[in-house]
Amino acid sequence: MDIKKYDKYFRSSASKVGGIKVSTGNLYDTQERTRNMLRLQIYNDLWERLRDFRERCERNKNYTFGDQWGDEVLDHNGKSTGISEEQNILSQGKVPLKNNLIRSLLKTILGTARNNKTEPQAISRDRDEQKLGEMMSVALQYAYQTERIFEKDIAALEQFVIKGVCFQSVRFKWDYKRQIREVTVGNINPSRVFFNGDIQDRYGEDIRTFGILEDMTFDEVVSAFANSPADIERLKEIYREAREDARQTYDTFSTDRQKSIQFYRPIDNNMCRVIQVWELVSAERLRCHDRKEARMFTADIEDMETIESINNARRQYYMQNGLTAEEAEDYLITYKWFYDHFWTFTYLSPMGDVLATGKTPFTHNDHPFAFCLYPLVDGEIHSFVEDVIDQQRYINRMITLIDFIMGASAKGVLVFPEDALGDMTKEEVLEEWVKYNGVIFAKVKAGTPMPQQISTNATNVGASELLKLELDLLKSVSGIHDALQGQTAVSGKPATLYAQESQNSATNLVDLMETFTSFRLNRDYKMMKVIQQYYDTPRYLNIAGGDYSEESKWYTPDKIRNSDFDIIVSQGVTTPAYRANMNNFLLSLFQMGALDAKTLLKNSAYPFADKLIKSIEQQEQAMQQQAMGQQMAALAAQGGVPSAEELGANPEAMAMISQALSA
Q1: Could you tell me where the beta strands, DSSP code E, fall in 392-451?
Q2: CB atoms < 10 A from the CB of 646, how many?
Q3: With contact defined as beta carbons under 8 Å apart, do 70 and 96 qualify?
Q4: Residues 317-322: contacts with CB under 8 Å, at least 24 apart
């Protein structure tokens, strides 16, 4: 009996427990289609329950990017009139003015994030595996650079500030451009997601259902779900309404595309709607311990017969090779029943066709998404932008009111008594009045007032003071003051006071930024697990500007796959402030004589350091060769030859030199 054959079967059977079980389904199975349509109705209801949230997100986005008069005007009963504030102002013959300050606040937050770049580091839980922690840190930072993850994080932060939510996916794909498999991170449009409505944790720990509405071309659908030519024909039948010759429905970069998202239909007729759903389900399973392989795994109930057949084969094999029945027990698989929770995925068409389904393929046993909902208090989300909309509205109102007052004030009005016209007509007076050198002849009688021009200032109703008050309130509510925005300080203000104001202003953003950092930590942990699972070949990962040993740059899957790490986010060495502080510290050590020039350059962040190090090494090599030549010449004149150890040279080369000198 070949026990290896059974073990091979067992390993393939055990590996499929946590892997993908793709099921393309039956195109004509009406019962399955009916069940799936009922599921789609539940998912559609979850998506509709987020409509109010999507509308608030759209309003926040409009205020951020300048559309600040789009709210509908309400009547005295609080009911909508169907007229926007902009249309109402235009109907009065005025222009709706605005001064977009929210956009300035957003740029300040994004600029602060860019000036404080952080990068992930893996810390090994085992003290003896610190080098493996460096290896994993290199792999993570390599993914950050190749996938431009920091730029994706900035885009996610922008969504986070405007809408109060951000979603990202962590997957593994084949990069056809570089012909290599890589971990990939993608931002998810919040308007295309749906999830269970009783969520209370801001990082999605209590998520049970999460779905995404995806629009894909037919070629992308075939690439993702077809395993044979027959599957292509099936997909053509499912998406027969998707026409390749269909024209684009909406303008490019138009807000109408976002507003027209529906659950069952794609935005454009040439696209295919794919509904991706991940669900946390429960089932009876087996917790297994393979005593021969020294590993734990989870199996389905239906795998019990397979496990028993493997145990019988192993027991028979080892007893035939001299072991007793009791000793053979040490090489069997023990298992125990338990009720397990695990994630499953399903890709559906709008008509209920199953494109693919299975259990989570990831070894972290979780869905591939990272969530951040801020602040999630009693199930409600109110973003940073939403907090300052009222101040922005009042500022716009004050500006428009001041414009109304100035427009209604008299400016350069000529008062000309008709009795003083004399021989001139009204038209002639008007014509002369607009000339820069005009002359008006008037006959002014006694007691008749003289012609005069009336020009008055705008009525002082305190609008300017209210505008200044609202501008100050906007800074107080947002927590972003002039110092953080980099505005020029007033004359005479001490530098220490200005720096303190900047620090205090940044403190107001700590909660926002730390929440986003925690979101990145969760995302980076899943990145690390995906790298451990799918980086199956050694590769050289060199990080630009990274200070790691040469050994750590060689990623070795066999060494790192079974290790466990903690992820931290630390200050990156790529920020200008970090480089400047490091260079100044090293320069001070050099000036005190604690470092030589070569050591200084090797540990510094000067852009010309590598070139200078190379020049220094060339000079040192030339000086060593010159000194060795002089020493050899002096010893040859004395008739003696130094040993190789004395010169630190190659013994074979020194032997050849000795023979030449002896000759």
Answers
A1: 413-415
A2: 11
A3: no
A4: 317/1, 317/3, 320/1
Cβ neighbours for 360, distance < 8 A, ≥ 6 positions apart: 18, 278, 342, 343, 344, 345, 366, 367, 368
Asked if 170 and 523 touch (Cβ cutoff 8 Å), the reply is yes
Rounded to 5°, the CA angle 298-302-308 comes to 80
What does residue 241 show for φ and ψ, rounded to 5 degrees? -80, -15
Residue type, 650: N
CA angle in degrees (0–180, nearest 5) for 554-557-561 = 130
Q: How confident is the model at residue 1 (pLDDT cuts 50, 70, 90)?
A: very low
- The residues, ordered by sequence, that sit 6+ positions from 587 with a Cβ below 8 Å of its Cβ are 600
Which has the closest alpha carbon to 526: 140, 132, 45, 19? 140
- C-alpha of 511 from chain center: 18
φ/ψ of 163, rounded to 5, equals: -105, -15
Task: Determine the residue type at 37.
Answer: M
The sign of the CA dihedral 351, 356, 357, 359 is negative
What would the two tokens of residue 593 be?
């004589």
Find out whether 487 and 111 touch, Cβ atoms under 8 Å: no
Which SS3 state, helix, strand or coil, does residue 421 take? coil
Please, are residues 184 and 147 in contact by the beta-carbon 8 Å criterion?
yes
Residue that the structure tokens 């716009």 belong to: 396
Torsion angle of the four alpha carbons 260, 261, 262, 268, in this order, in degrees rounded to the nearest 10: 80
Can you tell me whether residue 14 is helix, strand or coil?
helix
Let me know: does 523 contact 167? Beta carbons within 8 Å. Answer: no
- For residues 190 and 55, what is the distance between their CA atoms, to the nearest angstrom? 11
Question: φ, ψ for residue 2 (rounded to 5)?
Answer: -90, 100
State phi, psi for 287 to the nearest 5 degrees: -95, 115
DSSP reduced 3-state for 270:
coil
First to last CA, the chain: 74
Helix (H) / strand (E) containing 274: strand 272-290
Structural Rg of the chain based on CA atoms: 38
Residue for token digits 């990080």?
A: 543
Using pLDDT thresholds of 50, 70 and 90, give the confidence band for residue 31.
confident
- Residue 530's pLDDT is what? 92
Cβ-based burial of 266 (10 A; exposed 0-12, middle 13-18, buried ≥19): buried
| Three-state secondary-structure class, residue 275 | strand
Nearest residue to 36 via CA among 355, 366, 359, 367? 355
Q: What is the pLDDT of residues 607-637, one digit of tens each?
A: 677 777 778 888 888 888 777 777 777 766 6
pTM: 0.77
Q: Which residues pair with 119 in a beta bridge?
A: 570
